[in-house]
Input
Amino acid sequence: MRILFALLCVSIFPACGGRAPVQGWLYTGVSAGLSVSAQAGPKTGKACASSILGIIATGDASIDTARRNGGITSISIVDEEMTNILGLYATHCTVVHGK
Output
């Protein structure tokens, strides 16, 4: 019974606090647009953070880090990508497009 309760907590509760536009109970893999100011530029930069078991979270998913990773000086579009597998492993990436 304890094992069932622990699995329930790990798999359901992380999905309740997520920011994804939609949540899947077993798996979430979505992309969402945050802002658009012009046509997408030729360059793309990405920055990610990840979480293990909802206990340990590391990374830098900031817009500035994504901009630097893509060598972008002028941002035109900001998107985000989120993945969550049973609350055991999750990623949140910021993707920027620009010149």
